[in-house]
Specification:
mainly alpha; 0% strand
């Protein structure tokens, strides 16, 4: 696959995922897998692009007032140090691929199942995540995020949506913050062991940044909460199918 096609793929992934409060790591994994990259090369690139796009998303959600400190900081208490440990873990290629497919399929099913009940779920959602469960969950999420290289936002979003901890729009904001505070330290930990990156990364990063900017603007302002769940479910399913097909 040419660099131009890879840039287009990263742009589209960042655009779609940023619409729903995600940084796109599962999509980057799928694009690079399709292009024939080995898992060892995929993980650092996915983390690097996740850090970039999630930072853009966090700034956007702060500007719109959807990102509230009390929503995200409990997940960061243990999530940040755990993600560093996870970043040092290298999963065998077959286990990495199977784990990613399972995560994406479960996530897609859960979101699709709940999309039709978005309004009712948001109406019944808690005012804020319960402190101790969120702190403990953050540690588990951080470890899983660092080990897989996909950031913690996907896991955080599924947990919060499934348990009704906050309304959907605020979940998207917390998920993007979770992506940032798990992917950044995981990337830093990985960098200490493997400091080399592909020479084409700056171009890929520019493409992902442009997609992230457009997606964050559109998702925060124009997409209904129900549509957010439906789009995320669809792109997660597509990513799982792509990985399963090899």
């Amino acid at each position: 696959m040419s660099d131009l096609l890879l840039c287009l793929g990263f742009f589209l992934v960042a655009l779609l995922f940023a619409c729903v409060g995600q940084a796109g790591a599962p999509g980057y994994v799928a694009v690079m897998s399709f292009a024939g990259f080995a898992p060892g090369a995929i993980k650092p690139v996915a983390l690097a692009l996740t850090v970039l796009v999630s930072a853009i998303g966090v700034v956007r959600f702060v500007q719109t007032g959807l990102l509230k400190t009390r929503d995200w900081y409990p997940f960061a208490i243990l999530g940040l140090p755990a993600s560093v440990i996870g970043g040092l873990i290298t999963l065998p290629p077959d286990i990495f691929r199977i784990a990613m497919i399972a995560i994406l399929l479960v996530a897609s099913f859960q979101l699709a199942r709940s999309a039709g009940r978005t309004a009712a779920l948001d109406e019944a959602a808690l005012a804020e995540p319960p402190l101790l469960p969120a702190v403990l969950a953050g540690g588990v999420i951080g470890l899983a995020a660092g080990a897989t290289g996909i950031g913690g936002g996907l896991f955080t979003a599924l947990l919060m949506l499934g348990l009704g901890w906050t309304p959907t729009k605020r979940v998207a904001a917390v998920a993007q913050a979770s992506n940032l505070f798990t992917a950044a330290p995981a990337f830093a930990g990985l960098w200490t062991l493997h400091p080399t990156m592909p020479t084409a990364l700056p171009g890929w990063a520019l493409a992902a940044a442009l997609g992230g900017l457009l997606g964050a603007w559109f998702g925060a302002k124009h997409l209904p909460a129900k549509t957010l769940r439906q789009i995320l479910a669809a792109i997660l399913l597509a990513s799982a199918v792509r990985l399963a097909l090899g």
